[in-house]
């Protein structure tokens, strides 16, 4: 089956950086529209696709896909032969979906609250409960290695590898031995290096 025509609203200094890496890992071609965060108004094309004006926003044959977890899952399943998305019935499938969902539902909210010095609130109302527990889960996950789910590199690593790079760079998360080793392995991947070089060229031509 032919892959859909893809267009990504993108800024390398945003959450969409990992999507660019995933596209490189999958060998999928896409059109990139650079979203200028310094522009006084959001791109009309972006707002038409996603009224929230957020990136990443993906259009696949005219169908809009937003939200990081949905985009990573959608793209990885376009190229099952790449092996970046465990298929239904595979033992790793549950852990894969959990790692994707945990990022958006627990980890990122916890890190944002931590950055803004906000209390998590009542446990019953908080999406994650306790920042320390979230960070401990992450460290224990990476201690198994070499990748987020163990021996197999998946789309999960494109999400977490990119996010942890930003989090440690800005001091929101301590670059422990487990996290540092993981980020070094991630940065050494050819697809990651290609994506980052392409993003640097995109910014240079802005």
Topology:
Blueprint: E1 6-10, H1 17-26, E2 31-34, H2 44-49, E3 57-60, E4 63-66, H3 68-78, H4 93-115, H5 131-142, H6 155-169, H7 177-187, H8 190-204
Name the descriptors.
206 residues; alpha+beta; four-stranded mixed β-sheet
Care to describe what's here?
The structure is a single chain. Helices cover 50% and strands 8% of the residues. With 206 residues, it is an alpha+beta fold. It has two domains: 6-83 and 192-204, Glutaredoxin (3-Layer(aba) Sandwich); 93-189, Glutathione S-transferase Yfyf (Class Pi), Chain A, domain 2 (Up-down Bundle). Strands 2-1-3-4 form a four-stranded mixed sheet, with helices on one face. Strand 3 (57-60) and strand 4 (63-66) form a beta hairpin. The chain is globular and about 40 Å long. Residues 3-83 form the GST N-terminal domain. Pfam families: GST_C, GST_N. This is Glutathione S-transferase family protein. InterPro entries: Glutathione-S-Trfase_C_sf (IPR036282), Glutathione_S-Trfase (IPR040079), Glutathione_S-Trfase_N (IPR004045), GST_C (IPR004046), Thioredoxin-like_sf (IPR036249).
Give a brief rundown of this model.
This protein is an alpha+beta fold and about 210 residues long. Helices cover about 50% and strands about 10% of the residues.
């Amino acid at each position: 089956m032919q892959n859909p025509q893809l267009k990504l609203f993108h800024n390398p200094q945003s959450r969409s950086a990992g999507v660019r890496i995933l596209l490189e890992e999958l060998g999928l071609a896409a059109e990139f529209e650079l979203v200028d965060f310094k522009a006084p108004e959001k791109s009309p094309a972006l707002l038409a696709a996603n009224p929230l004006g957020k990136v990443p926003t993906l259009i696949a044959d005219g169908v809009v896909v937003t939200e990081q977890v949905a985009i990573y899952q959608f793209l990885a399943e376009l190229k099952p032969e790449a092996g970046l998305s465990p298929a239904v019935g595979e033992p790793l499938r549950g852990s894969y979906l959990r790692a994707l969902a945990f990022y958006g539902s627990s980890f990122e909210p916890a890190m944002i609250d931590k950055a803004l010095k906000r209390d998590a609130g009542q446990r019953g109302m908080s999406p994650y409960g306790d920042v320390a527990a979230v960070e401990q889960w992450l460290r224990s996950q990476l201690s198994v290695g070499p990748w987020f789910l163990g021996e197999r590199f998946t789309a999960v690593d494109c999400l977490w590898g990119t996010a942890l790079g930003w989090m440690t760079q800005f001091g929101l998360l301590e670059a422990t031995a487990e996290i540092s080793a993981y980020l070094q392995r991630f940065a050494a991947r050819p697809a990651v290096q290609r994506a980052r070089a392409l993003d640097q060229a995109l910014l240079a031509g802005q």
